[in-house]
Write a structure and sequence with these properties.
Length: 266
């Protein structure tokens, strides 16, 4: 099975960290291909960043469809472009916020999310409501650490995040903690050991979920909302994102080749 893990920002070091984390849950026979788009924001910390990360993400999905990818992980805690990706991909697409939040509900009575910047907490609350797990969410806390500080070796980020997770347990009444950034994936085990409750990282949770869905032979329903979009001309910068007329490949769902037969936008 081939799982493509897409870091929607363009920071290579974070993509490597995300790939290493995903491989910790890959079983025998599962290959992890961790990538980031060639276009888009270096980190995603606003609605603007998130919106502009989506074309690059969809381009990677299109390439994956040509390469016969079995399933996808969207490795950004805002779950950018998830629904659009599900419309294009033949296999299942799971994003890390949804996977982490749902996984946390298996492990305790209530979870708190610990994320990077305060301005992203509203998005996390919106996602908890959208996924129907808001009743399990005790709080969404921010460390006011820029995402790319997580890439600086020896930065204070690890200590600040660990302290915020401990405060969540002490003050929110949660018995599970969810890490609110893909860039925190490598901190999971150490933080859990220090604060004494399960700590969930979405990269591992999403990878394990995709792996389980593929092994059960399950994929996104094309019955209605996630049916393939109707091709129509895209113009300007996005001309290359014009979908071709569907051709039956990859288990029945059409390859999303662009006008030039290459990948969308590339
Ligand atoms: C993430 N941003 O997981 C989100 C975290 C955040 O570039 N990768 C990013 O702060 O929303």
């Amino acid at each position: 099975m081939l799982i493509k893990v897409i870091n929607p920002n363009t920071t290579d070091s974070m993509t490597e960290k995300i790939g290493a984390c995903a491989r910790t849950v890959a079983t025998v026979g599962t290959t992890i291909h961790a990538v980031n788009p060639a276009m888009g924001p270096a980190s995603i910390e606003s609605h603007y960043d998130e919106a502009l990360a989506v074309p690059g993400l969809l381009d990677e999905i299109a390439k994956g469809e040509r390469d016969g990818v079995d399933g996808y992980v969207i490795a950004c805690f805002g779950d950018p472009g998830l629904e659009a990706a599900r419309e294009l991909a033949a296999g299942p697409v799971v994003a890390i916020a949804e996977a982490a939040m749902r996984t946390a509900t298996f492990l305790g009575r209530g979870f708190s999310v610990v994320t990077t910047l305060g301005r992203t907490t509203g998005r996390a609350w919106d996602l908890a409501a959208h996924y129907g797990v808001k009743d399990f969410c005790r709080n969404v806390r921010a460390c006011e650490i820029p995402v790319l500080d997580l890439e600086i070796p020896g930065s204070a980020a690890r200590g600040v995040i660990t302290a915020e997770c401990a405060r969540a347990v002490a003050e929110d009444g949660c018995d599970v903690v969810v890490l609110g950034c893909a860039g925190m994936a490598d901190l999971t085990a150490d933080i859990s050991r220090r604060i004494g409750v399960p700590v969930v990282d979405g990269v591992a949770a999403a990878t394990a979920t995709v792996q389980a869905l593929v092994s059960m032979g399950l994929r996104t329903s094309t019955q209605s909302e996630f049916a393939r979009p109707v091709p129509k001309p895209m113009v300007g910068l996005l001309a290359g994102f014009t979908l071709d007329e569907p051709v039956a490949v990859n288990g029945g769902r059409a390859a999303t080749a662009g006008l030039d037969g290459a990948g969308i936008g590339s």
